Amino acid sequence: MPRRPTPPAPDSQTFVDRVASWGLSPAAADSPQARQVEQHWRWPIMMVLVCTIPAFYAELLQPEPSRLADMTYLVAAMVVGTALAHVSWYTRHPVAHLLANPTDLLLVLGLLAAAFLPGSRTSNLTLGLRLIVAFLTLLRMVWSQQHLVTRGGVAYLLTVSLGVLLACGLGFWWLEPTTPTLADGMWLAFTTAATVGYGDVVPTTSASKIFSVFVVLLGFGVLTLVTAAIATKWVETEERLIEREIIHDMRHEMTQLRHELAALRTEVNHCIAVRDAAPAQAAGQPVEPSAPPPAG
User: Fold this and answer.
1) Residue 53 falls within a domain, yes or no?
2) Domain range spanning residue 63?
C-alpha cells in the first residue's frame, strides 16, 4: 500500500501564497536564524528607503542631475539587495526565498536604474520609471511595518503616524507655494492623507501634485495599519476573556472527573472485597477484613 504524503503544517505557506502577498514574503518559519537576520535588517532598509523620497524630488526639481540623489538610490539598492541575499543565505531554500520576493528584486533593479538615469526633468520616461520605483518603495515600507499590527503596537503605530504626518507636512511646505508655514503644510498633508479634500488649500505645482499621490497612498497604508492594530486590540481582549472562561470550565470539569473517578475506585474495591468474601462464607470460614482502599 503506497504511503500517504504528509500534509503541510497549518502555518506553512505555499510558493503561490507567498508570492501573492504583495510580492513580498518573510523568511519561512522553519528558519529561525533567517528570521532573526531579517529583523536586524528591518530598520536599515526602512531608513534608506525613506531617504529615497527627497532624492526623488531632488531629481525632479533640480535642472541638473543630483549626485547626492544618485548616491542615495545606489546605497538603497545595495542595502535592500544585501539584506535579501543575507536572509536567503540562512533559509533552507535560498532560491525559493528569492523567487518569493519579486517586489524586492524589482525594487533593487529599479533603484539601480534610478541611480544611473538622467534627471527626471529631461525625460518623461525617466520620471515614469522613478515614479514606479517610488511606488515599490512605498509598498515595501508599508509591508515592513505589518509586524506592528498587534495589541501592544497601537501606541507605536500612532507615533509612527504622527512622524509620517510631520514628514508629509515638511514635504508640502517645501514643494507647495500656497503653504508658507509648516502648520499649513501639515494641514494639507492631513487632508490629503485622509482623503477629506476641504478645498481651502490644494496642490498647485506639478511636484506637489505628484507628492500628494504618494501622500494619499501612504495615508491609506498608515491608517489601515492603525485601524487594524486597534481592531486587533479589541479582538485579542475578547479572545482572552473567552480563553479564561474555557480554562475555568475545563478546571471545573476536571475536578468533577477526579471526584467521580475516586468514587468509582471505591466502589470497585468494595465489589472486589465482596467477591473475595463470598467463597469463604460459603465454606464456613471466617472472613478476614479486606484492606481499606488506597486514598485518592
Assistant:
1) yes
2) 20-144
- C-alpha span between 112 and 71 (Å, rounded): 10
Place of cell 515614479: 131
Q: Is the pTM of this model over 0.90?
A: no
Amino acid at 70: D
Q: Spell out the long-range contacts of 108-111 with Cβ–Cβ below 8 A and sequence spacing 24 or more.
A: 108/77, 108/80, 108/81, 108/84, 110/136, 111/52, 111/73, 111/74, 111/76, 111/77, 111/80
Residues 6+ apart with CB under 8 A from 293: 265, 266, 269, 270
Separation of CA 172 from chain center:
29
Domain count, the chain: 1
Residue 131 lies in a domain: yes
**Residue 183 within a domain:** no
Q: Average pLDDT of each block of 10 consecutive residues along the chain (296 residues)?
A: 44 41 83 91 90 85 82 95 94 91 94 89 85 89 71 68 83 88 88 83 86 83 76 72 83 88 88 77 57 54
pLDDT at position 12 is 41
For residue 63, give the 3-state DSSP assignment. coil
What pLDDT, on a 0 to 100 scale, did the predictor assign at position 20?
Answer: 41
